[in-house]
Amino acid sequence: MAKRFKPQIATGNDLLDGDVVYFTQGLKWSRFIGDAWIATNEEAAEVLQKEASKFPNDIVGVYLTDVAIDDEGRARPDHFREDFRMRGPSNRPEHGRPVERA
After folding, report:
1. Looking at the chain, which runs of residues are DSSP E strands?
2. Dmax of the chain from CA atoms?
3. Which tops the pLDDT comparison, 78 or 13?
4. Which residues contact 17 (CB under 8 A, 6 or more apart)?
5. What's the CA gap between 38 and 56, in Å, rounded?
6. To 5 degrees, how large is the angle CA 16–CA 21–CA 48?
């Protein structure tokens, strides 16, 4: 039995600040998962991966990830790893990073 395709989005990290970003249908990157371009079949996922990979000087670690779709048709994390990544880099003080002492 063939594996059923799950909706996917492209994600990566902003090269300068490390923020998690999501590729949009406007061919830009957003910090909001709800803005993400959702591929609903394998062909669309291939196009999405190709387009999202065109920014090597701005975005690193680009990959496709499965998502769930909310009631308004927007992407939301389908795996705890992506849910955790949405909270941002853990190297910021507001995320529990120890503050250096003088």
Report:
1. 8-14, 20-23, 29-30, 59-69, 75-77
2. 61
3. 13
4. none
5. 21
6. 120
Q: Where are the domains of the chain?
A: 1-53
| Burial of 6 per CB tally in 10 Å (0-12, 13-18, 19+) | middle
Strands 59-69 and 29-30: unpaired
What does the pLDDT look like over 11-64, one tens digit per residue?
A: 999 999 888 999 999 999 999 999 999 999 999 999 999 999 999 999 999 999
Q: How far is CA 31 from the centre of its chain?
A: 8
Query: What is the pLDDT at residue 23?
Result: 98
Please tell me which residue, 55 or 77, carries the higher pLDDT value. Answer: 55
pLDDT of residue 76: 86
Question: Which strands make up the sheet holding 59-69, listed edge to edge?
Answer: 29-30, 20-23, 8-14, 59-69, 75-77
Q: What are the residues facing 30 on neighbouring strands?
A: 22
